[in-house]
Write a structure and sequence with these properties.
By secondary structure, the chain is mainly beta. Helix content is 8%, strand content 41%. The chain has one helix and five strands. The mean pLDDT is 89.
Length: 71
């Protein structure tokens, strides 16, 4: 998943978020249309050890829907 975080001033910060396998995501309720471009989401993730913007998805909340990272 690629996220663009609106921070003060341009450009938006880009985060690369990894998830579990497709099968693991499906078992936790994900489908092909769970996330759409432009959705506003609250994301919890374990950051990368090297400090770069990104990490492993813990859960994502979009409106009333909460999905786990499958990992």
């Amino acid at each position: 998943i690629t996220l663009y975080l609106d921070a003060d001033g341009p450009p938006p910060q880009r985060y690369k978020i990894e998830t579990g396998s497709v099968n693991a995501l499906q078992r936790t309720g994900w489908s092909a249309d769970s996330i759409k471009a432009g959705d506003i989401a609250e994301v919890s993730f374990k950051p990368l050890k090297n400090g770069e913007p990104g990490g492993l998805l813990v859960e994502i909340k979009i409106g009333d829907m909460v999905l786990s990272g499958g990992g």
